[in-house]
Amino acid sequence: TRLLDAIDPDLVVHQGASHTAGYAALWARHRGRRSLFWVAHEIDVDGQYEAAAGPLLGWLHRRALALAAEVVCTTRRQQSLLDSRRPGRSSVLVRYGVQAGEADPGSQRVGALWVGRAAGFKRPSLFVDLARALPEVPFTMVLADNRDGEGLFDSIRSRAQGVPNLTLCPNLDHPSSVRAVARTRVLVSTSTQEGLPLVFLEALAAGTPVASLAFDPDGLLRDHGVFGCAGGSLESLARMVVQLTSDDALFAAVSRRALDLWRTELSLDVHVQRFRDVVGRVAPGR
Predict the structure, then answer these.
(1) Residues 154, 78: Cα–Cα separation, whole Å
(2) Which of 34, 117, 148, 167 is the most buried (most CB within 10 A)?
(3) b/e code 157-170 from CB counts within 10 Å (16+ = b)
(4) What angle, 0 to 180 degrees and rounded to 10, lies between the N-to-C axes of helices 234-246 and 124-133?
(5) d(CA 281, CA 85)
(6) Is 285 helix (H, G, I), strand (E, B) or coil?
(7) Model-level pTM?
(8) Where are the extended beta strands (E) located within 148-185?
(9) Is residue 110 a contact partner of residue 183, using CB atoms and an 8 Å limit?
(10) What are the per-10-residue average pLDDT scores of the chain (286 residues)?
């Protein structure tokens, strides 16, 4: 709290579950300031963090949510989870936003792409399985070492060596990752659950369709036709990948819809305006 004492802000914004969110909220209450809790992932509101954190850290997390002048969620599902566990706790929906992508023409795009950390819930091994099942499609995996001591990164790197149509790009920097998203025909997700992944928004901003194995945040992919969720079926996911990498007309139509969705709902300008509205409402200033 020494840093907060030195800065003495009108509003303290904390993103994601951690003990520091609780300390920040308690500081704000003590100093007569406001705090805002920004939900980063479903585990922030579904009870998983509290169960894993233990009594003290779990209590601090609950205080952060209770004392916040507002809770900002990035999906309606997060709002629903929050309401089911803490009835009456208000929240507001502010989706993330990103800048415009490069949006390479479809004729210059190749194959399927996976981007993420070597984390268990992201299930990168399933992308390797998908590449092995579709040898005619070029696959690229941008994999970051999670450094969690479980050895998943090394395991995936070893398995990828046996799949000739799979190119592994370990620990790629973010600008290079964004460029890779703009040069692929389809972004693939194999995660069990997420919030609203930044890489999804980067894909839509570049006109890149998204094919997800198991989740579709608020039905955005389905409802806007930018592509879809396979309901947990690797076979259905494979069919989507084949469609989007082989059918130029389909890709072009989905790409246009992706760019339209980004412009109207997920651009950085839209995000900033919606967040500014929240801040103006909850922070009185001095």
Answers:
(1) 33
(2) 34
(3) bebbeebeebebee
(4) 60
(5) 25
(6) coil
(7) 0.88
(8) 166-170
(9) yes
(10) 89 91 94 94 91 92 95 95 94 93 74 94 96 98 81 91 95 92 96 89 96 94 96 97 96 96 95 94 74
